[in-house]
Amino acid sequence: MARAFTGKDGKLLIGTTEAGKVVDWSLEGQNEILETTTLNDSYRSFTSGIIGFNGSATLLYYKPDSGTNSASTLIDKARKGEEVSLVLRLVDGTSNKDINITALLTSFSIGVAVGDIVRASFGFTVTGDVSGVTI
Predict the structure, then answer these.
(1) pLDDT tens track for 22-46
(2) CA within 20 to 30 Å of 106's CA: 9, 57, 73, 84, which one?
(3) Exposure pattern of 73-82 as b/e (b: 16+ CB <10 Å)?
(4) In a 3-state reduction of DSSP, which class is residue 8?
(5) How far apart are CA 87 and CA 128, in angstroms?
(6) Model-level pTM?
């Protein structure tokens, strides 16, 4: 029987370490289409141009039992303009469906609201191609 994935199947890894409390992640791809139509053509024609990816993630900001909070790690990398290795993962029983990327964090924000857990949101742009795609 076919299996539908849900949000609880998702994980985010920073390098090889699972990010603690992830609310969501997303990845979007773009292809800049280039026109190749010539003067004597009756119909427009196109070819693939530069391909790029960007995405976002939201993590809960919490005090870890030990070590560094995942949101703190990402904020520090964004502040320093450092690349970060991310794995966007769907867990399928005992196997993983991964998308491996190297990205620059383009934005981050922290929001505090009464009656809610503090959340840190991040935007990123992939540098290079995605790799190890098993989804």
Answers:
(1) 999 999 999 999 999 999 999 999 9
(2) 9
(3) bbbebbeeee
(4) helix
(5) 15
(6) 0.86
